[in-house]
Amino acid sequence: QKKINDPVHIVGPPQLPILGNGLLFMNVGAVEILRQLQKLWHEYGSIYKIFLGSKLWIIVSDPKLIEEIATNPKFLTKSDDYDVMEEWLGRGLLTSSGQKWFTHRKALTPAFHFKILETFVPIFDAQSDILIRKLEAQSKSGKAFDIFPLIKLYALDVICETAMGTSCYAQLEDSAYAKAIEKISEILNWRVFHALAWNDLYFRMTRKYPEYKKQLQIIYNFTNSVIKSRKNNLGINNNEISTITKDEDIGMKKKMALLDILLQTEIDGKLLTNEEIREEVESFMFAGHDTTTSAITFLLYNLAKCPEIQEKVYMEISNIIGDDKTTKITLRHLNEMKYFDMVIKESLRMHSPVPFIARRIEDDLLLCDIPLQSGTNIALGIYLLHHDPKYFPEPEKFLPERFDINSESEKYANFSYIPFSAGSRNCIGQKFALNEIKSGASKVLRNFIVKLPQPDYEPIVKTEIVLKPANGVYLNFEKRV
Ligand code: HEM
What we know:
The protein contains 18 helices and 13 strands. It is of the alpha+beta class and 481 residues long. The site of protoporphyrin IX containing FE has 24 residues, from helix 13 and helix 18.
């Protein structure tokens, strides 16, 4: 790894020889890491640096700088931090760069065409019916329970059945894959912030390594079984994908699920290799369920915390869908939930599912007049930005009206509100996610009044690639009659 000179014009905490600021983050756990990054932000502001050993990170949470990074093609490459995910995610859309990223993004965009997204709405609805049954069963005891694992299995079933066109019955049979994702995210996050574990050789000697390999195998087995199952459904022989019809815009013309596009589309005149398919499936499975789990979990918490807002959302939903709990949700219903849109936006601000993302610069350049050396990693502090009182007055208050498009104060378009990132590397699944969140959460609200276990209950948050509750989110569910 290239040694980057200390950019003396950027502020940051005092460094020790060799370890830099590594001691602030080493072996402290994901809750403390987020707190530490927030503390440094309070101390040093919207651009600061830290050295994890010899690895320099510049942490940016200023909308102007973020705009420059999100819109300038010189910042399209993901940072070195994503390398720790390579054995797991390969170089799928989330982690790839250059021509590979560009051609895959172009080929996969049709999988998120609004006509395709519409066909997913009945799947969201059917899966949320199972979620309701599970919540009902758990709530019988009258005690509060942790909703995070239940939401996770719902989100996993949704991504499998929509994007992968395959049922994985996670809600009915539980999922070793879901648990393996939790474990591997924890290990990789520890690696990113550990000044020594960054090194492959060191990592292999740690006690975490055998556990990491074990979880990786569980993940591989699961994704391979998803691919195999879809190939069987499509009647594709494992080694003979090339017999399938070839068509430039195959996804768009035939309205195919993501995995079908991966199996059948040609990029640069060639079908994707089995490994390329695996890395995309791996990336979409992860990016498509861990994030929405976080979003729905914290949304339900925020609604429980603010009963008047919950009631207002419920009234909107019941005005649109009616009181019959068995009525199936349609895309039209989802599109009409305007107040709920604002509430979801505010929840994604308060509990941004992807708290940090990062890029690496490939050439020496100026970032809005700040000189940076080639190889520098720049983290975009989405979570920090979304809690900045300069852009969100009283940031710890849950105020959906901030996002009222009819009000003067709705002014968050200019890169100060970026839960799905921004620019050409933004989230490809944004609309998918918003429909899934709205569909799942509205079903919960039609069936239950969601309550906090105690008035001052507040889950502790941690960041392990995705924002998560450190000890679950415990809520009470009272049946709506
Ligand atoms: C609330 C839910 C979600 C949030 C907050 C979210 C957020 C984000 C963010 C911040 C990025 C940029 C990542 C980076 O620069 O490293 C991203 C990228 C991505 N997201 Fe999402 N996401 C969500 C749901 C989804 C879903 C449901 C899918 C798939 C169905 C998905 C697939 C992806 C993929 C493949 C990328 C990489 C795009 C690229 O680099 O071209 N995401 N997402």
